[in-house]
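Structure tokens please, single chain.
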Amino acid sequence: MTVAVMSSSKPKAASKSGAGKFEAGRTRRREPTAPRRCLASGEVRPKRELLRFVVAPDGALVPDVAERLPGRGLWLSPRRDMIDLACARNLFAKAAKAPVRVPSDLAEQVAGLLRRRCLDLLGLVRRGGQAACGYEAAALWLSGGKAALLLQAVDAAEGGRQKLRALARAHDVPVIEIFRAEELGRALGRDALVHVALAGGGATARLNEELARLGALVRSDPQSTQR
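Here you go.
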């Protein structure tokens, strides 16, 4: 399987990650502006390009991909080597100035949460009438200038994907290949989908940000089959 980003020019997941340890109703507002520093690299980047973690009251480290959990945020670049480095050097505990219990599968937890978040946002785009599903519908939106983003399944035949990629390039539309056909279908109420064109708008912009974080994490994982 392949992860590619090409351009022409909760509930269950949160419980698994430990988010349920926080008191119900205590959430923080997501602040989209101020930059933060990556614990591992020291690089200062916009918050939307980083991953937030918090320490639960029982000392467990919890990925907060939606940036809504209470507590001080601990920030990392969305890369496997940065997560591994932070774990190996005990950087979470050093930053928190307290013992922190880090799950052994932290990178996998983060990837799963980001993946679920992206698919949930994709469903939100569909419910807003901003998704064209299937080859013909996607091609029509691309040709008509309505598409702002094209998603293609990584496990589909190459022929149809190449044709729509070329059409997307001709209209300066980014193409992202990161999900399987079954995942795209489930998110959009179908059995399976290979091609999904998305119109512009706030929900698509949010999805694009999350896809960027997920793609960076998956591509940086040497063990991943999705490269």
